[in-house]
Each structure stands twice: as C-alpha cells, then as structure tokens.
Amino acid sequence: MASKPSERTHRHRPDDSLTLTPLMDIITNLMFFLLIFANAIPVVTIDAPLPKVANTAEEVRAAKDASNKLEVQVAISNAGFVVRSDFAPGVTINKEGADFDYKALHKALAQVHFQKPEVNEITVIPEDEVDYQVIILVMDAARLYEEGDEGFKELPPEIRNSTEKFHFNQMFPNVNIGGV
Amino acid sequence: MRIGPKKKRITAGTRKRSRGAEGLMMNSLLDILVTILFFLLKNYSYVITNFAVSHDLTLPDSTAYNPPPGSTLQLVVSKKAIILDDKELATLDEYGNIRASDLHSDGVTVVPLFRALEAHKQRSKFFEKQNEDHTFKGTVVLQADKSLKFRTIKKVIYTAGVTDFINLRLAVIKHDA
C-alpha cells in the first residue's frame, strides 16, 4: 500500500518572482491604443494669404503703402530658380542634374535677407509645369536661417525646447504665391 | 569503451527541479513591448487630431511648424478631383488638369468651386448678421497632392481668391529638417 507523501517533500514554496502579467496587460493595451491613434499624419500648415482687392479708401491707402515695400521674389521653372530683389543683384540657380538645388537657393536667400533683415516677405512665382512639392520646398528654404548662415544666431538654451525657437532665426516666414 | 557525452541519469529529484522553468519566459517579450511603447509615446507628441486628411492624396513634405486650424473649410485637390468639405465638385483628367467644361471663359475660374465657395461665403455672412461673435475671415485650408502641377493649383487658388477666401493655409506633412 502506498504511503502518503510527507509534508517535507511536497511543500509549496511561495512564488517570489515578479508578477508580470498585469504589467503586460497594461503595456499591450496602451500599445494598441497608441498604434491606432499614432498612425494619424502629423499635419502642419503654411500661411499663404492671397492679395485682397482694395475696395475702401483705407484699403487703397494700405495697398499704396504696401507697394513701397521692398520685395524679394523667387521665380521657379523646371530649369531652376531665379532670385530677384529690389536691393540685391539677381541670382540664377540652375538644377543640379535632375534635382533642384535647394541649398544654393537657401544660401542666396540668406545673403539677401542679411542685407535687409527687416524684409520678411517673399513672393514665389512658379511656372505652370512646376510641381506643388517644389513650391513647398522653396518656401522651406526661405523660412529660417540655418547654422553656417551669416545671420544665424545661436539659440538661447531657455527656448531650445519651446515653440519660441521657431521665431528666432526667421528669414522670410511670410509667403505670397505669385503668378495666380 | 564509450565515446561521447555521458548520459545524465534522470532521477526523481532532477525531474522535479526542472519543472520550475516550464512557464513562458516573458521577459524578452516585455522588453520588446516596452521599447515599442516608448517609440510610440515619443511619436505620439507629434500627432495632431481634429484634422482629416483625404486618403487619395499625398500631401507635400515640409519643415513648417504652424498647427492646422481647428474647424475650417477644407479644400482638397487630389489627382482625381476637387473636393470642398467632403463634397466632390469637379473631376480632373488623367493628366491632373481641370476639365475645360468646369472652367469659366476666363480660363482660370473653376465654376463649380466658385459656386460652392460663394454659397459658403453667403452662409457665413448670414451667420455674421445673426451672431456678432461669428465673423467671416475667409480662411480655407488647401490640401493638394504634391505631384500636381502649378497650372492646376493656381486655378483653385485664383477661384478661392475671387470668392474672398484669401486666408489660404497650405496643409503639408511635417518632417524634421
């Protein structure tokens, strides 16, 4: 007849390992939640106000004042860019092979802005066959000074992580679309 | 003489001891999940809700930083159609051009879009009279496909301009420089 096993040989040791199951549940739930909502596209916008037709006397006066403003233009064609301004000689930037040379455009615009830092508006004049993406990349090239540009200022550490940093090294943040 | 590894004798004791490792090893899985979680949490800060992007268009990439406005008129120009607030107004041909039948005799005004924007403007101005807090600002967010040519975009922009929707905001996908 079999005897009952002794208590000493069949004792249950308490489980001293970490219980990971609830943690796993939380992480899995959080992950699915984030996966569902994180696939949304990070969309931002570029302000490109259109010129308003002056109807009132005040608007006509404002338009006349605006016509005295210094202007910077970038003409875009499938051959490249031409930068023109009222206060600097024109610069022609041809394509590098099949690609537009956005770095050269940025350098040219940085030099123009450095001469008249009070000018913050640019007009892009694309030709009909230019892709929309190219127009947007021209606006990007004109927006901010980059490291190595003459007008570039080092960001103060206190604004390095705030949205204020976007307003620090501005070149031509205001864009008009010409040729419309 | 026996060559090769010596067989270990399985006793009742060793059988009992190995039973402890039978459970699923979750530590590595947990490491992976935590890594993915941190990655998602980092990217989550960029996500902007309350802005619907049409599925059949690819927005251009940009280093711009202005967040999109909350509830504004959405004007979509995909490779196939012009859509205003989810309503298709005109279709584009296979080359992404606006069809001549949708254009005014001036060659630039898109007639169905002009009518729809005018209706929006009139409605907005009506509300303006009823409610002093409501003002017509003429703001419109343009979502246009990045591969479209300027000849198509400019007609849409021109039509928005002549209907007093002059505060144009171009929707783009943010990418870091």
- Give the % helix of chain A: 25-40%
Radius of gyration of chain B: 30 Å
Encode the helix/strand succession of chain A as letters.
HEHEEEHEHE
This entry's quaternary arrangement is: heterodimer
| Strand order, largest beta sheet of chain B | 1-6-5-2-3-4
Strand pairing plus helix content of chain B: what structural class? alpha/beta
Helix-residue proportion of chain B: 25-40%
Radius of gyration of chain A: 30 Å
Unreliable spans of chain B are none
| Class inferred from helices and paired strands of chain A | alpha/beta
| Strand residues, percent of chain A | 15-25%
Word description of this protein:
Chain A has helices spanning 21-38, 57-67, 102-115, 132-143; strands at residues 43-47, 72-77, 80-85, 91-94, 121-126, 174-177. Chain A is of the alpha/beta class. In chain A, strand 5, helix 4 (132-143) and strand 6 form a beta-alpha-beta unit. In chain A, helix 3 (102-115) crosses helix 4. Chain B is an alpha/beta fold and 177 residues long. A 6-stranded mixed β-sheet of chain B has the order 1-6-5-2-3-4, covered by helices on one side. Chain B is 33% helix and 17% strand. In chain B, helix 3 packs parallel to helix 4. Chain B has 4 helices and 6 strands, in the order ααββββαβαβ. Chain B has helices spanning 12-18, 27-44, 111-130, 150-162, and strands at 61-62, 73-77, 81-84, 87-91, 139-144, 167-174. Chain B is elongated and about 75 Å long.
